[in-house]
Structures are given as structure tokens and as C-alpha cells.
Amino acid sequence: MTTPVNVTVTGAAGQIGYALLFRIASGAMLGPDTPVRLRLLEIPQAVRAAEGTAMELDDCAFPLLAGIDIHDEPAAGFAGTNIALLVGARPRGPGMERADLLEANGGIFGPQGKAINDGAADDVRVLVVGNPANTNALIAAAHAPDVPAARFTAMTRLDHNRALSQVSAKAGVPVADIRRLAIWGNHSATQYPDLFHAEVGGSPGGALTADAGWLTEDFIPTVAKRGAAIIDARGASSAASAANAAIDHTRDWVLGTPEGDWTSAGVVSKGEYGVPEGLVCSFPVTSSGGEWQVVEGLEIDDFSRERIDASVAELSAERDAVRELGLV
Ligand code: NAI
């Protein structure tokens, strides 16, 4: 049998963890030929709940699941890990200022980045899901100087999938026939879902943008504020769709994106499209050979430029804030 891939999931006892672990163990993330060993990393108070989830995983008798370990300490949780899905984060509490939120998350993602640096496998790949995802990824990467920065990514795939679904409904075209959408910027309400380079049912996505009212009043805000709409309807934040996006992101990273298409991911900027170097920013990306590449050479018109710049300005402000706190 092939050597199992070690996958660490933080926040394993949370909502997303519950929707994620079973799909990883089923083979949805790494394919039907790759066994996985799951490492569940939680805070001590949630270890008991993680044990319950592990019992259920056992009870599924997944043929690809080679083992489950539960940890409440990052060094052990990340030792030898190949894929780290950083889901657990500190949510914004009532009356919490942004600086308090960033500081609280710095206390989580700094030590986790260090533990990844010190003990993870040489090929480790990290996806940060826990919010604020882009800046948490920046903090983790800053604590892992021996790991290439490109191995730290933040999840904007849920935004990408939400955009696909909105376009599908508007155009009456199956999602499978929509290609080359892109999410730019921060995983926040400032993100910019870009249709201008898309192909929708074989026609240029630009045709849909001719309906300016739909584009600016409906499509862009619906995608950007979908998380809040889910909370309003469900009484809890997106979990299964977030877990699904984490599966999609990691699968494409490891196994590659389809020919002729691209997806969206928060990756460390090398200065592409004028995004300051070092920011973890969502771009249109392809993957091959286990590496993300930013799609280069796209023409960005004034409409898109203004929106990309606004989201990138927010990312820069978050970076300045965590710098001031000494977290990066
Ligand atoms: P949840 O509150 O149900 O679960 C979070 C879990 O993380 C809890 O079990 C908690 O004990 C654990 N945790 C907290 N600190 C930890 C630490 N230091 N180490 C290990 N585990 C720790 O939250 P849920 O719904 O699972 O969401 C998790 C995160 O994902 C949130 O930050 C949420 O905002 C974010 N999210 C991101 C999305 C994206 O598109 N990037 C989409 C949806 C959610």
C-alpha cells in the first residue's frame, strides 16, 4: 500500500471540521489511491468532542483511512505533516476591536506556523481557512522561515464557488460550462469577483457584465456578502460549503487544475498586478506539479482595478496592524 499522507486539521471539533474530516477520509481530497492519516488538533476543552468525531470516523470504516491521532499541542499535531488545514481560529466576540481580533489570532497562527516550521514534512502545504484567513496565513508564514512562503495559502475557493453558482443561475448555464472566473483580494466583503475574463457556456463572460445593474448591485455584493446571508438564514456560518471549498483547493493544489481553466486562491504575492510583495492575496491561479502559479498578463480595466485596489488596500492595512502588534 502507498505510504499514507499525513493531514492535520485544526479546529477539528468545530462545524467545518465535522464537515471536512469525513470527506478527506473518503478520498475526496487526494483521490481514491491515496491513504490518509488524520491528525486532529484542538484546544484541550474540545479534545473530548474531537474524540467523538474520531469514533464516528472509525465507524465509517473508510478503506483509505490509515489512522487518527488527536492532539492539543501544535508541535505534536504538525510533526511530520504533509498537509495542514488551519481551520480553528478565534471568532470576533461582541465589542472586540480589529486589533484585539488580530492579536488573538496571532496567538494561534504564530505558534502553529512555528510548529510547522520545526516539525512538518519537507513537502508541507498549508491552507488557512480560519478568519481573517489571508492575514492569519501571513502570520503563520512569518513564523516559518524555513518553509517556502509559497506553501502558505488562504482560502478564497468558497468565494470562487459562490461566484460560479451565481453566474450559473443568471446565465442558465451549468457550472461545469463556466470557466476562468476569478476572486481578487481579501476573503472579506471587499473581495472582487471578476467576470471579465470568464467564459460562460462558450461565450465571453463580458456579455453578462453588460448588465451593469446586475453586476454592481447584485452579483458582486451577493458573492461578497454570501457568508452573512448564510448566517442569517441558517443561524450558523457556512460549514459544509467551506469544507467543500477546502477539499477543492487542496485537491487542485496537489493534483492540478484542469487544462484551460483556472481557480482562485490566496497566495503570497510576488508583486503580480501591482499587489505589494508578501501580501497573501487572492488571484486567479493554476496549479501543476504541486505549485500554484498566478495567471499573468490579464488586462485589468478601470472598473476592476478600482475594486482590486480597494481590497488590496485592506490587506495592506491588516498587514500594517499585525506588524504594529509585532506578529510578523
Ligand atoms: P467553530 O467555532 O465551529 O469551530 C472552531 C474550532 O476551532 C473549535 O472547535 C475550537 O475549539 C477550535 N480552535 C480554536 N482555537 C484553536 C487552536 N488554537 N488550535 C486548534 N483548534 C482551535 O468554527 P467553524 O464554523 O468551524 O469555522 C472555523 C473558521 O473558519 C472560522 O474562523 C470561520 O470564520 C472560518 N471560515 C472561513 C471561510 C473561508 O472561506 N475562508 C468560510 C467559513 C468559515
UniProtKB/TrEMBL annotation:
<feature type="binding site">
    <location>
        <begin position="11"/>
        <end position="17"/>
    </location>
    <ligand>
        <name>NAD(+)</name>
    </ligand>
</feature>
<dbReference type="InterPro" id="IPR010945">
    <property type="entry name" value="Malate_DH_type2"/>
</dbReference>
<comment type="function">
    <text>Catalyzes the reversible oxidation of malate to oxaloacetate.</text>
</comment>
<feature type="binding site">
    <location>
        <position position="112"/>
    </location>
    <ligand>
        <name>NAD(+)</name>
    </ligand>
</feature>
<dbReference type="Pfam" id="PF00056">
    <property type="entry name" value="Ldh_1_N"/>
</dbReference>
<feature type="domain" description="Lactate/malate dehydrogenase C-terminal">
    <location>
        <begin position="156"/>
        <end position="322"/>
    </location>
</feature>
<feature type="binding site">
    <location>
        <position position="98"/>
    </location>
    <ligand>
        <name>substrate</name>
    </ligand>
</feature>
<keyword id="KW-0560">Oxidoreductase</keyword>
<dbReference type="InterPro" id="IPR015955">
    <property type="entry name" value="Lactate_DH/Glyco_Ohase_4_C"/>
</dbReference>
<dbReference type="InterPro" id="IPR001557">
    <property type="entry name" value="L-lactate/malate_DH"/>
</dbReference>
<dbReference type="GO" id="GO:0030060">
    <property type="term" value="F:L-malate dehydrogenase (NAD+) activity"/>
</dbReference>
<dbReference type="InterPro" id="IPR022383">
    <property type="entry name" value="Lactate/malate_DH_C"/>
</dbReference>
<feature type="binding site">
    <location>
        <position position="92"/>
    </location>
    <ligand>
        <name>substrate</name>
    </ligand>
</feature>
<feature type="binding site">
    <location>
        <begin position="129"/>
        <end position="131"/>
    </location>
    <ligand>
        <name>NAD(+)</name>
    </ligand>
</feature>
<dbReference type="InterPro" id="IPR036291">
    <property type="entry name" value="NAD(P)-bd_dom_sf"/>
</dbReference>
<dbReference type="InterPro" id="IPR001252">
    <property type="entry name" value="Malate_DH_AS"/>
</dbReference>
<keyword id="KW-0520">NAD</keyword>
<dbReference type="InterPro" id="IPR001236">
    <property type="entry name" value="Lactate/malate_DH_N"/>
</dbReference>
<feature type="binding site">
    <location>
        <position position="105"/>
    </location>
    <ligand>
        <name>NAD(+)</name>
    </ligand>
</feature>
<dbReference type="Pfam" id="PF02866">
    <property type="entry name" value="Ldh_1_C"/>
</dbReference>
<feature type="binding site">
    <location>
        <position position="162"/>
    </location>
    <ligand>
        <name>substrate</name>
    </ligand>
</feature>
<feature type="domain" description="Lactate/malate dehydrogenase N-terminal">
    <location>
        <begin position="6"/>
        <end position="145"/>
    </location>
</feature>
<keyword id="KW-0816">Tricarboxylic acid cycle</keyword>
<comment type="similarity">
    <text>Belongs to the LDH/MDH superfamily. MDH type 2 family.</text>
</comment>
<feature type="binding site">
    <location>
        <position position="131"/>
    </location>
    <ligand>
        <name>substrate</name>
    </ligand>
</feature>
<protein>
    <recommendedName>
        <fullName>Malate dehydrogenase</fullName>
        <ecNumber>1.1.1.37</ecNumber>
    </recommendedName>
</protein>
<feature type="active site" description="Proton acceptor">
    <location>
        <position position="187"/>
    </location>
</feature>
